[in-house]
From TrEMBL:
Organism: Pantherophis guttatus
Matching InterPro entries: BACK, Gal_Oxase/kelch_b-propeller, Kelch-typ_b-propeller, Kelch_1
Limits of the BACK domain: 3-61
Pfam families: BACK, Kelch_1, Kelch_KLHDC2_KLHL20_DRC7
Record protein name field: Kelch-like protein 18
């Protein structure tokens, strides 16, 4: 029937694959007697590996329709194996792990904190300024500032809210956290981290915020902590194998990847990832370039890093990681050398925001289009120069 064709389509506009599952099950239940026989084929069209592990365990696996069908149970097991055992991923049909193209709908990019203009990168003052970029309109505008000035700040987006985490206020490394509601254009306080840290990596995985490494004012850190928005509490997580400040951190294939960074003595090209289901860290292939203060983001089936500093030069070079081959490949370089650059994904494209080119702080922004394999300049920031924290707030699916 038409519903099988519909659930197969890349063009479905949904925020989460879980919505496709819920809609399909509701369709079956509406006329269970006639439609239950379609369920195995229907479930095979749904991209279950893209659902959150908790959803697979608590919702899908417990459903009476699924439990009473052997083929359906096999499909759920396959999806759970995808999360638990990365080595079993390769044989999966490609479409099952390809996000719906609702990801091509651009969200709003927020640039948070950072430094003001200064001839010397290290002399800039920390800012509380926040501005937002609409990629469709190619336009930046100012919004409500934070209560605290923060450079080298961590930024994360959960449930449509934007969190500004830690950072450096010009005098102290911070453990404090504040949260921005775009609907009300207002900031409020959230629970503080257990450690003070700036220049850490900040990501969201399974509805929790993770911060990895950073600098506490004395030394680079290997510690990791996770924040639950439901409890407003931070808890310690298994530490990384290396102390890493100014590393590139992003979520890729359901795991947290940490690339490069420095420990105060050396700059790394090594890469490790955190598996949340085993609470363990594992090494993968090293980048071609050692780098810190670089940008990292995932897009589609690849992980990207760009820019940074290798100890002697400010970099424009970009690389891409393929997990199937466990290899890094050089990508076309950015137009500008950018250290302390933020990289963010939205609308199926990458945006490299701000940074420092070795002489001055940058307000410029470059966009990478994987289809044309080119970096092009978009509208520059209007309020910021230097190392901003960046987060993307997705537009709600309509």
């Amino acid at each position: 029937p038409d519903v099988l064709e519909l659930t197969s389509r890349d063009e479905l506009h949904v925020k989460l694959e879980e919505q496709v599952y819920e809609a399909a099950l509701a369709w079956v239940r509406y006329d269970r007697e006639q439609r239950e026989a379609c369920l195995p084929e229907l479930l095979s069209r749904i991209r279950l590996p893209l659902c959150r592990p908790q959803f697979l365990t608590d919702r899908v696996q417990q459903d009476d329709l699924v439990r009473s069908c052997h083929k359906c149970r096999d499909l759920v097991d396959e999806a759970k194996d995808y999360h638990l055992m990365p080595e079993r991923r390769r044989p999966l049909l490609a479409f099952k792990t390809r996000p719906r193209c609702c990801t091509s709908i651009a969200g709003l990019i927020y640039a948070v904190g950072g430094l003001n203009s200064a001839a010397n990168f290290y002399a800039g003052d920390s800012l509380n300024v926040v501005e937002v970029f609409d990629p469709v309109a190619n336009h930046w505008e100012k919004c409500q500032p934070m209560t605290t000035a923060r450079s080298r700040v961590g930024v994360a987006v959960v449930n449509g809210l934007l969190y500004a985490i830690g950072g450096y206020d010009g005098q102290w490394r911070l453990s404090t956290v504040e949260v921005y509601n775009p609907e009300t254009d207002s900031w409020s306080r959230a629970g503080s981290m257990n450690s003070k840290r700036s220049a850490m990596g900040t990501v969201v995985l399974d509805g929790q915020i993770y911060v990895c490494g950073g600098y506490d004012g004395t030394s680079s850190l290997n510690s990791v902590e996770a924040y639950s928005p439901e409890t407003d509490k931070w808890t310690s997580v298994t530490p990384m194998s290396s102390n890493r400040s100014a590393a590139g951190v992003t979520v890729f294939e359901g795991r947290i990847f940490v690339s490069g960074g420095h420990d105060g003595l050396q700059i790394f090209n090594s890469v490790e990832y955190y598996n949340p289901h085993t609470a363990s860290w594992h090494s993968v292939a090293s980048m071609s370039n050692k780098r810190c203060r670089h940008g990292a983001a995932s897009l589609g089936s690849k992980l990207f890093v760009c820019g940074g500093y290798d100890g002697s030069a400010f970099l424009s070079v970009a690389e891409v990681y393929n997990s199937a081959s466990d290899q890094w490949y050089l990508l076309v370089p950015m137009n500008t050398r950018r250290s302390r650059v933020s990289l963010v994904t939205t609308g199926g494209r990458l945006y490299a925001v701000g940074g420092y080119d070795g002489q001055s702080n940058l307000s410029s922004v470059e966009m990478y289009d994987p289809e044309s394999n080119r970096w092009t300049f978009v509208a520059p920031m209007v309020c910021h120069e230097g190392g901003v924290g960046v987060g993307c707030v997705p537009l709600m699916a309509i």
